[in-house]
Amino acid sequence: MIYNTMKNYFYIVITLSFITFQIHAQQVKVPVDTVIVSSHSTNIKGKAIPYKATVGFQPVWDETGIPIASLSYTYYKRSDIKNDEKRPLLISFNGGPGSASVWMHIAYTGPRILKIDNEGFPVQPYGIKSNPNSVLDVADIVFVNPVNTGYSRMIPGKDGKMPDKKLFFGVNADVKYLASWINTFVTRNNRWRSPKYLIGESYGTTRVSGLALELQNMQWMYLNGVILVSPTQIGFKFDGPVEVANRLPYFAAAAWYHKMLSPELQNKDLLEVLPEVEKYTVNELLPAIVKSGYLGASKKEEVVTKMAYYSGLSKKTILQHNLEVPKVYFWKDLLREKDGYTIGRLDSRYKGMDIKEAGERPDYNSELTAWLHAFTPAINYYYSQELGLKTDLKYNMFGPVRPWDRNKDNRTGENLRKAMAMNANLHTMIQSGYYDGATTYFNAKYVMWQLNANGKLTERLSFKGYRSGHMMYLRNEDLIQANEDIRTFIIKSSTNISKGSKY
Predict the structure, then answer these.
(1) Which fold has domain 2-236+372-499?
(2) Model pTM?
(3) Residues 441, 97, 99, 207: what is their CA dihedral angle, to the nearest 10 degrees?
(4) What are the domain boundaries of the chain?
(5) Tag placement on the chain: N or C end, fewer CB within 10 Å?
């Protein structure tokens, strides 16, 4: 069926099959194998870019070929390039686990982004606007929603029973079925020759790190690049003194932003302050925390004074916590005496207001509340009114995926390292916001160091930092720079590859 929309876009709707089930006494149709294609144009870096947008549902099959899940995805393909041989494909995942691909889709790399102010705070009326910084000029992009996120759902069998959740909800299961799904997508869309990239945010970095090796070993699909946005530990363990010491550079960044440091530091630029704090963290603070109660009174006083100097916290607070101030306490305490506000976990630029100034943790995540405020109306409007998807399915910003099996969670980083060792064309870039208190930028640097344990991956690993939080692209200045960093990364790692994958 071909029809015209209010915006004069043509949609081609091909519905191959549907599955129905009861929700609140209403039948809701879950597309199993469906595509809706529309034609658009946007302007990126001053150039008109025509593209086709495909809203699709593609099955996940069991070993007997029976669909057990249907994954929703959105695929943007530049339409003025006829030969895909050298055209990169960027496959995008968000995290959670249990989070939809909405965040990077309509706020980062896609051709349309939500309306927010220049610092990333919600504005009304809600809506969508063009993204002049999208990387669609250099790569086609597919945003994938794992099971129970977005519109993706499990499919009941003929007996009405749902598939075993263990097939989807766990570190290894997630990687396994998504690798198979990617194989099908690449085959259906004739992208086997294209340079291929994975980008994951937060838990999505655990996902894409595991996928890099799974695609290579089990699907025989070799990547050109992996982009880790606000990475988790991806399996590298740094509990104890290392984890405690690594908090300080983030504390310093957040305190600097809120003007809680001494004038000597406050008058410096953030990127002058942080290297100083990082050096102290590695060379002085870590050994001091290792010694703990045996540090000695004079040395302990010296360390506490320095920690207070760099963190904006009081010496008393640091002493009361035996040098180990939890991040959750920091979010509550940093501004307690100044104005009584809390600061955000995922982005500490955001302030929150608790019912009581007393306490050890904020009442809520101020940044996440603001983000859901802006994203939820925008994505629902966008699919319905601009991409032509009409459904009674609820778009799950966060879906039910618990319990999540963490078995062998420690392998994903090692798997990425192994994939890079086996594939000389594979590059990795890490992007982090300095004000991210959940997956801190200094932990991201630490992860990069662990990936490069033998020192031989230096030329294929890079770190980029930004003056915002977990979703650094919400701040317009960082949206511009972070997309440009991806653009440069893709161009650099997808050229000169005809010379061969070799050392």
Answers:
(1) Rossmann fold (3.40.50)
(2) 0.93
(3) 70
(4) 2-236+372-499, 241-367
(5) C
